[in-house]
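User: Second chain of the day. Same drill as before.
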Amino acid sequence: MLEYNRIREKIFDNIFDIEKVICEKDLKGIIKIELDKRAEKINKGDEVFNNVQFKVFVEWLKKRFVNNDLDFVREVRNAFSHSQFPSISITNLPQITNAKANEFISKEQTQGYKGTEYISLSQQIYNRYCEIIYGSEKSKNKGIMESIKDI
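Assistant: Same format as last time:
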């Protein structure tokens, strides 16, 4: 649980960085999307809150470049904000098999196992999440942050 909370904090730091870069790039665009959404809610009779939800930033990103990984970022952010894990269909990570669970139980006390051989589900999600946000030299992907700066 401690690791989950540590990674959860990192995810929120990354999200705040994205929101900051977008606002620095196009605050007027974010305000327009938000005001349009609020007007829609008012017309429907829905409750309006005085905070900008992350989906406004995702909409801004989707309008400017196509990136199928935005749904992954949104899903991870939403899951971790509710102390959950994102669905397997979003993460594309393999389910934990009985063999993997038994391996963990048998080796968890082995010195160095958790630091070298074992990569937790939280860490696997975060690694993928960072590749999408910051890019990866291995995959030659420049990431969302770099793409925002290029807009």
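The longest helix spans residues 2-44.

User: Great, on to the next one.
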